[in-house]
Structure formats: C-alpha cells, structure tokens
Design goal:
By secondary structure, the chain is of the alpha+beta class. Helix content is about 30%, strand content about 30%. Strands 1, 2, 3, 4, 5 and 6 form a 6-stranded mixed beta sheet that branches. Helix 3 runs parallel beside helix 5. The longest helix has about 35 residues.
C-alpha cells in the first residue's frame, strides 16, 4: 500500500524545537491560520477552497427522488468524499483509507447531523417526492488542514447552490428549468465550520492549522466544529495524548475566533459572486417574479 515518505529525525527535532520557540516554518504564530482562498465555478454549487497548499473542490447536485419511508416530510442530504492520488501518494483510487473514513464521518457529523441544511425544505410532496441533495468532496492537494478545508468547501458550495424552482397543483409537480424561472437557494439553518488544533509537548502546546509536516509529528488533534454564533456542534479528539477540561475549553476558544474569519470570508465571496452574476439587477427582478 503506498504511503508518504517518513519524516526524518532531524526534521522532527527541528520542527519541534521551532514550535517550542513559537516559530513555524511558514512564518505564522502558533495560533494563526493559513490564507483561505475561495472561488466558484460557472455552475451554481461548485466551490474551490484553498487553505495554504491544501485544495478541496466541493460540488453540490440535486435530483428529485422518493423520500425514506420513515422520513416522509424530509428530503435527503448526503456527503461523498474522494481522496485523489494526485493529492498525496498515500491515497489510492478505489481503496478507502483511515483518513478518508475519518474525514467522511467528521463532515457527516459537522454538517448533516447538526442540521445545517433544512431537510424539511427539500420536501416537495410528503411521502412521494423530495429533493436529494448530494455534496461531492474532491481533495486535489493535501498539506494538512484537510477537515477544515473540506468543511469550508461544502458549506460554501451549499450557500452558493441554487436548485430549480417547482410549483405544485394538487399532486402534479412542475419543475422549471433555469431559463423558465430563476433557481432558488437552499434553506440553511446555520453555517458550521471546523478548526483543527494539534497537540504537542504532552498536550501543553496548542498549534492551530498545522501543515502536513507538523501534523505528522503531533501527539494528537482536537477538531472543533461550531458556527459564528458560538454554538458548538461537535468536538472530536484524535490521538492518544490526554486532554483535560481546561485545555479543551482553550481549544474551543481558539476555534471560535477562527470560525468567525471563515464565515466572513465565505459570506463575502458568495455575495461578490452573486453581484457578478446579477447583471443589471436582472436576477433580483426575476426572483421577485418567481415570488409573485
């Protein structure tokens, strides 16, 4: 099974000594994030997120299907992850790794189980028809911060996505194309983001947003998921080093500061993209016609 080259003892000692002196190889302090860059594709719901050298592409798609029998009034939302070999030699096509399993489960808990997307708004006809929204996450380049970048990409793509408008007369459902009616945004209840805090020196040294080299010599990770309102959705503890309650609270405080930045960057990018597409206020005018 392919894997990354092991980090040398000299590199390990150098990075650990630098971190102990509050110095990192890329010039950041221990609590700094790497630059977050976001761009959207030509279609709605395609978000390309870069966190440092880590790059993740998320794509949202929707189709009409039948709801689950025990969830008659809810639509369906699924997240599918793919770790490409071009992102890292440790990833293989068609073979699930432990890292891919962890990523998939964390995104599932952070976004789907926290009810970030209002699945009731995806219902068209109770028990008969609903929207099946799917988020495909493709990791294109990997240099640490995989969970943080992937979560930001999915949330950004969900905010950017527009589904076709529908009308209902009795049991007849009409789905309009984008030319007939302006597509409508998804209903989101909140916007969760993940921040990874790595542990060094038996858990006494906290480092935010580690690179791949730093993460490979860390003694553990705490992944905090929260929204900009300060509501914690999940806390995942990875690694064997123990963490006491006060240290865990410090991780949550650090994450809350960074999550506000994530939220601002993505909200501004979505607003700018909408302005670029809204030529002469045409989309706003057509959206008003939809409501009438």
């Amino acid at each position: 099974m392919p894997r990354e080259a092991e980090i040398s003892l000299n590199e390990r000692e150098f990075i650990l000594r630098a971190l102990g002196e509050n110095v990192r190889l890329d010039g950041r302090t221990l609590e700094d994030l790497r630059p977050l860059e976001l761009s959207f594709g030509d279609e709605y719901g395609v978000a390309d997120v870069r966190l440092g050298k880590t790059r993740v592409l998320a794509r949202i798609s929707a189709e009409v299907t039948q709801p689950f029998p025990d969830r008659r009034f809810d639509g369906i939302f699924t997240i599918v992850t793919e770790l490409s070999p071009m992102a890292s030699p440790a990833f293989e096509t068609g073979r699930s790794t432990d890292q891919e399993t962890i990523l998939s489960r964390l995104l599932e808990k952070a976004i789907r189980r926290s009810n970030a997307l209002d699945t009731e708004s995806l219902c068209i006809l109770a028990g008969q028809k609903c929207w099946n929204v799917r988020a495909d996450v493709h990791v294109l380049d990997y240099d640490g911060g995989l969970v943080d970048a992937s979560c930001a990409a999915v949330v950004a793509a969900l905010q950017h996505f527009r589904r076709p408008d529908v009308s209902i007369e009795g049991e007849n459902v009409t789905i309009y194309t984008n030319e007939e009616r302006v597509p409508v945004p998804l209903s989101m209840l909140h916007h969760p983001f993940c921040v990874t805090v790595s542990l060094f020196q038996e858990g006494q040294l906290l480092v935010v947003d580690t690179t791949l080299q730093e993460s490979r010599i860390s003694e553990g990770e705490v992944i905090v998921t929260a929204n900009r309102q300060g509501e914690v959705c999940q806390i995942a503890k990875l690694g064997g080093v123990p963490v006491d309650a006060l240290l865990l609270l410090r991780c949550v405080e650090l994450a809350a500061e960074k999550i506000t930045r994530f939220s601002n960057v993505i909200s501004e990018a979505v607003a700018k993209d909408f302005e670029k597409r809204n030529i002469g206020g045409l989309l706003t005018e057509l959206s008003a016609e939809n409501e009438r």
